[in-house]
Specification:
107 residues, elongated, mainly alpha
Length: 107
């Protein structure tokens, strides 16, 4: 039995580590914002935190669909989903949050 860790396992582990860092960062920033009574920033950071927290649900839903479609080997799928289950939704959330600021009408 080999004890070497393959690239897929490292990518999976790094994806989960990235998820942990993203969750700590978004939740930490929300906490700091509310302590400073910056309600708008707090709401934005909490939205990001919810998206990252929901990554496990996203992982399960997409995992079931993609395994059924047999789009890639299971090990590669796990590594892919460990990153994409939180990074992709967070990207779209950020686009929505920032677009509100960019396209907001000036008084």
């Amino acid at each position: 039995m080999s004890t070497r860790i393959g690239a897929d396992e490292r990518a999976y582990g790094m994806g989960l580590a990235g998820l942990a860092v993203a969750w700590l960062a978004t939740t930490g920033m929300a906490f700091v914002a509310i302590r400073r009574k910056n309600i708008t920033q707090h709401k934005q950071w909490m939205t990001r935190s919810y998206v990252v927290t929901f990554a496990f649900v996203t992982f399960r839903l997409v995992d079931d669909m993609m395994r059924g479609a047999k789009l890639m080997p299971d090990e590669q799928l796990d590594a892919f989903l460990a990153w994409s289950c939180w990074a992709v939704p967070l990207l779209f959330t950020e686009l929505i949050i920032q677009s509100r600021e960019v396209f907001r009408k000036r008084a």
